[in-house]
């Protein structure tokens, strides 16, 4: 007699499931352009030098592995807030932000979702069309109803500004709108500064809560530049929630180093609300894993390590930009007549290629090239040794 026999299998994860399939594939030329993990030109995901130095210091200095506070180390939490807002922002001066170290940005989203669901059980969560495959999973697992706002326009390969504003204007007060601060996943298409102003105005006027997902700070134009949308929203709205991540910009993927930050109208409001975030954490994973947070706080407390890290981040950003150009130019050199030049304008790690699900399936079945359904390519997975094979394969499936 089996208790579990009646349970059907769940479908593989749209992104992480690809890596599993890729790992099982024995084709010598296989390429994984699925999961958003940075790779250098030799196809490796290196540990940053700044991270290695910080880890050596931590190893020498750490004397205990006792529990962290529920919200994580106070030094880390302060570092997160300064990273998000910049050191001298009114939100920090007025003590209106409270931060918890969460297991990755995903953990931040889920803790935020659990906290909000308890407080606002009837709210709907609005996400962009399209959005990161896991967003809907996280918010529906927390019990929320979901709705979509229009975002990407396949015809122009840009933002559908009018439709987005129209949809956001229809969101009822008390609902929650999930916005990607930069390097929109999967499209790489971000709102302009003028659009952020309009979005902030709408949030304030309509009374919906902005929930910002900030997973790629430093992969767009730079750490400071990439927070522009967040600053615009924080200027327009007294209250917001931010899930952020150091997975990509510090390369700490497996150390699960992220945060949830709540900004309240006043310090005491933030303090009271945040005590409920701590309940959401305590009843889920109790308190965060320490290691990644220690790395981040060690680097950010040391000017020279910060400098090294910023240069390494710039190196990752520049490589991705160069690969975008190379990819587009080679496709055209191979006689592909479709215009892919829009890929050069997209921000962050991904190229929303415009390849259809049929093309994606053909690339996988015939060439062992793994791309997320919807046509999102991890540009960082393209290297000098696989770019020709990739472009030939794309040319073949498009022909
Ligand atoms: C991605 O979109 O590929 C990354 O954010 C990794 C993930 O967890 O899906």
What is the fold's blueprint, element by element?
Blueprint lengths: L15 H9 L6 E2 L16 H13 L12 H12 L4 H4 L3 E6 L1 H16 L4 E6 L3 H9 L3 E6 L1 E2 L4 E2 L1 H9 L6 E5 L12 H14 L2 E6 L13 H9 L3 E6 L12 E6 L3 H16 L8 H10 L2 H31 L16 E3 L4 H11 L1 E2 L5 E3 L8 H12 L1
Parallel strand pairs: 1-12, 3-4, 3-7, 7-8, 8-9
Antiparallel strand pairs: 2-10, 5-6, 9-10, 11-13
Helix pairs in contact: 2-11, 2-12, 5-6, 5-10, 7-8, 8-9, 13-14
Bound molecules: (2S)-2-hydroxybutanedioic acid.
Summarize, please.
With 399 residues, this protein is α/β, with parallel strands linked by helices.
Please indicate the count of domains.
Answer: 2
Radius of gyration: 21 Å
| β-sheet strand percentage | 5-15%
Order of helices and strands: HEHHHEHEHEEEHEHEHEEHHHEHEEH
CATH C-level category of the largest domain: Alpha Beta
Structural class: alpha/beta
Q: Major beta sheet, specifics?
A: 7 strands, mixed
> Which cofactors or ions or other ligands sit in this model?
(2S)-2-hydroxybutanedioic acid
- With helices defined by DSSP (H or I, 4 residues minimum), what is the helix count? 14
Q: What number is the mean pLDDT?
A: 96
Shape: globular
Helix content bin: 40-55%
Count every beta strand, where a strand is a DSSP E run of 2 or more residues.
Answer: 13
């Amino acid at each position: 007699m089996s208790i579990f026999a009646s349970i059907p299998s769940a479908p593989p994860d749209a992104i992480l499931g690809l890596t599993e399939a890729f790992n099982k594939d024995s084709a010598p030329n296989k390429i994984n352009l699925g999961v958003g993990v940075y790779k250098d030109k030799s196809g490796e995901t290196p540990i940053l030098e700044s991270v290695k130095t910080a880890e050596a210091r931590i190893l020498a200095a750490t004397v205990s592995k006792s529990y962290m506070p529920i919200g994580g180390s106070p030094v880390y939490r302060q570092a997160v807030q300064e990273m998000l807002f910049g050191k001298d922002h009114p939100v920090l001066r007025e003590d209106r932000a409270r931060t918890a170290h969460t297991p990755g940005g995903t953990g931040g989203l889920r803790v935020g979702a659990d906290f909000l669901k308890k407080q606002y059980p009837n709210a709907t969560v609005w996400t962009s069309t399209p959005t990161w495959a896991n967003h809907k999973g996280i918010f529906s697992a927390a019990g929320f109803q979901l709705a979509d706002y229009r975002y990407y326009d396949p015809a122009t390969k840009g933002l559908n500004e009018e439709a987005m504003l129209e949809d956001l204007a229809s969101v009822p007060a008390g609902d929650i709108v999930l916005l990607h601060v930069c390097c929109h996943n999967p499209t790489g298409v971000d709102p302009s500064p003028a659009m952020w102003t309009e979005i902030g105005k709408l949030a304030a006027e309509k009374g919906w809560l902005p929930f910002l997902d900030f997973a790629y700070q430093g992969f767009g134009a730079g750490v400071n530049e990439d927070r522009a949308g967040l600053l615009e929203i924080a200027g327009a709205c007294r209250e917001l929630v931010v899930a952020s991540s150091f997975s990509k910009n510090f390369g700490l993927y497996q150390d699960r180093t992220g945060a949830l930050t709540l900004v309240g109208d006043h310090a005491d409001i933030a303090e009271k609300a945040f005590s409920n975030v701590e309940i959401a954490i305590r009843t889920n994973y109790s308190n965060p894993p320490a290691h990644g947070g220690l790395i981040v706080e060690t680097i950010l407390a040391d000017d020279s390590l910060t400098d090294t890290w910023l240069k390494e981040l710039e190196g990752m950003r520049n490589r991705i930009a160069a690969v975008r150009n190379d990819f587009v130019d080679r496709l055209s050199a191979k006689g592909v007549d479709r215009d892919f030049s829009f890929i050069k304008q997209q921000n962050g790690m991904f190229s929303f290629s415009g390849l259809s699900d049929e093309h994606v399936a053909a690339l996988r079945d015939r060439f062992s090239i793994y791309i997320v359904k919807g046509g999102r390519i991890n540009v960082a997975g393209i290297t000098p040794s696989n770019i020709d094979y990739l472009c030939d394969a794309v040319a073949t499936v498009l022909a």
